[in-house]
């Protein structure tokens, strides 16, 4: 027999009570701040060819940069989320953006590879503070449309990730490493926006969030919840290990296989990342209507045929396939995150920190492992190897059925 609380898991908003209209202004503000935060992160990725030449780096060292900022974020995010579940810290968001700003300035004037790693660590710390609390605010501002709110929040981050390579191609490649410092202006704007969001959070929702936590009930027994969380983490592993191969080494793959220039390769990286941003918009709202599990099925396993074809395609079809992969695969995270939040009500910060942190960690570990593999074999071999990862989407069959299907 299904527990009464399970009636909300994966159900449509219309099936829930006490809903209001989403706070669109807050969702827009937190999404814009997410765009700034992730744009600054993506500048690191887009600068890899420049840094490789400037400091004579190997692919393993390139992977180590990604590992540093993503592992820093992954280790701290669950702890930050757990702490803020107990003691909300609305004004922590501007401090997180300030840490990312420090990392950006260090990156602009880094005289050595060691300082580049330090800059990456500051960016990771900023993300560890930003993501759990901002994800909680997106949920509080959702008016009950949790998938929609997470998609709005996520699309900001994916848009920022997408425009990073374009900005790098337009400004950083022609003008050099120190031109990164100009992007600190965007970070300052982000800090101002987050101060306003923090005021809204402090004034309206901390007490309400505490009341919801006190009355929250898990929809399934602990054993079922633990198993479902484990399956979701396997899916996150498959998604972000695969994305690490595409995002960290895509420019090198295009340069190596098709002889593109750095700027042309960054343009193709933008196509993939922009498609990922567009795909993010769909996952949450569709999950609100039909349930999270169908979206998870389609977004992870549905990528497998295209991923398996990618290493054998010419330049045109490589671009086309990566666009399709970005569109489909990016719809997964919002559905996975909201599904997990509904499995563990009252622990939004901890769940958000766990899943953002695990995603960052898998991305960083993937970049490091695949960089080492590329040094020992080739970039082409790496793309052949990671093509099989989306097949782990078959693990979705182990998730509990959503209540809308019961």
From TrEMBL:
Transmembrane portions of the chain: 62-80, 100-130, 181-203, 224-245, 265-283, 295-313, 319-339, 351-374, 380-399
Keywords: Membrane, Transmembrane, Transmembrane helix
Domain of life, per lineage: Bacteria
PROSITE patterns assigned: MFS
Xref: InterPro entries: MFS, MFS_dom, MFS_trans_sf
A UniProt-annotated Pfam family: MFS_1
Domain Major facilitator superfamily (MFS) profile residue range list: 26-405
PANTHER family from the UniProt entry: FOSMIDOMYCIN RESISTANCE PROTEIN
Protein name (database record): MFS transporter
Source species taxonomy: Bacteria, Pseudomonadati, Pseudomonadota, Betaproteobacteria, Burkholderiales
């Amino acid at each position: 027999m299904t527990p009464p609380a399970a009636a909300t898991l994966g159900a449509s908003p219309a099936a829930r009570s006490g809903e209001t209209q989403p706070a669109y202004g807050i969702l827009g503000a937190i999404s814009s701040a997410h765009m700034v935060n992730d744009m600054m992160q993506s500048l690191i990725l887009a600068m890899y060819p420049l840094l490789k030449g400037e400091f004579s780096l190997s692919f393993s060292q390139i992977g180590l940069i990604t590992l540093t900022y993503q592992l820093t974020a992954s280790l701290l995010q669950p702890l930050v989320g757990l702490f803020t579940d107990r003691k909300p810290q609305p004004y922590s968001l501007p401090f997180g953006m300030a840490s990312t700003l420090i990392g950006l300035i260090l990156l602009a004037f880094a005289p050595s590879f060691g300082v580049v790693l330090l800059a990456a660590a500051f960016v990771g710390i900023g993300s560890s503070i930003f993501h759990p609390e901002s994800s909680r605010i997106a949920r509080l501002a959702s008016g009950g449309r949790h998938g929609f709110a997470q998609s709005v929040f996520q699309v900001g981050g994916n848009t920022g990730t997408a425009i990073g390579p374009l900005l790098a191609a337009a400004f950083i490649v022609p003008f050099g490493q120190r031109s990164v410092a100009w992007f600190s202006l965007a970070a300052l704007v982000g800090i101002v926006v987050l101060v306003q969001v923090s005021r809204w959070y402090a004034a309206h929702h901390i007490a309400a969030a505490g009341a919801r936590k006190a009355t929250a009930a898990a929809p399934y027994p602990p054993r079922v919840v633990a198993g479902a969380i484990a399956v979701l983490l396997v899916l996150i592993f498959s998604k972000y290990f695969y994305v690490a191969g595409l995002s960290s080494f895509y420019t090198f793959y295009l340069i190596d296989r098709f002889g593109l220039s750095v700027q042309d390769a960054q343009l193709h990286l933008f196509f993939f990342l922009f498609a990922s941003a567009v795909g993010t918009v769909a996952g949450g709202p569709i999950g609100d209507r039909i349930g999270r599990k169908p979206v998870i099925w389609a977004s992870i396993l549905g990528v497998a045929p295209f991923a398996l074809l990618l290493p054998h395609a010419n330049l045109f079809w490589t671009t086309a396939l990566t666009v399709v992969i970005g569109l489909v695969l990016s719809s997964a995270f919002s559905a996975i995150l909201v599904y997990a939040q509904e499995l563990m009500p009252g622990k939004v910060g901890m769940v958000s920190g766990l899943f953002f942190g695990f995603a960052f960690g898998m991305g960083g570990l993937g970049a490091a492992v695949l960089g080492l593999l590329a040094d020992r074999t080739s970039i082409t071999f790496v793309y052949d190897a990671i093509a099989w990862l989306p097949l782990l989407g078959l693990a979705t069959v182990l998730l509990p059925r959503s209540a809308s299907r019961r």
